[in-house]
Amino acid sequence: MALNDRVLGIAALFFAAFLTWFGYDLEAPFTYEPVGPKAFPLMLALIIALCGVRLIYKGGNSVDPNPEGANFRIMTMVVYVAAYAFLFQWVGFIVSTALMSIFVGRLFNGTWIKCIIGGVVMGILFFLLFDKGLDVVLPTGILGDLL
Question: Which is the most buried residue in 23, 60, 74, 93, by most CB within 10 A?
């Protein structure tokens, strides 16, 4: 089967169904936010499903093969996301986000210094935005005593 937009649209619908199945039963052990934890995966599933329907309806265009080295970068990104999920609770939001940003920046040929500065700034600013500004509780990890 040749890859085209419709195949991607069908895959998006399956992924949206998985997100809906996963997110529908999410319940917080105690209420700390008015919306609750199920809102984000369900909203994301809706957006992905709408995009999938559009690809199926308007699709049919052939998809060019990935350029040289792209498949390696994609698989490396999957490893980085898995490492991010593993480290998130243990080392905390700021450190795990900074590390993820640094290594993703390097995948896209950023210099070490720019990636380090950008990663550290993103980790701190997003923590302040979500934890302090939006009152979303994030793990502090190894920086717990400093925050």
Answer: 93
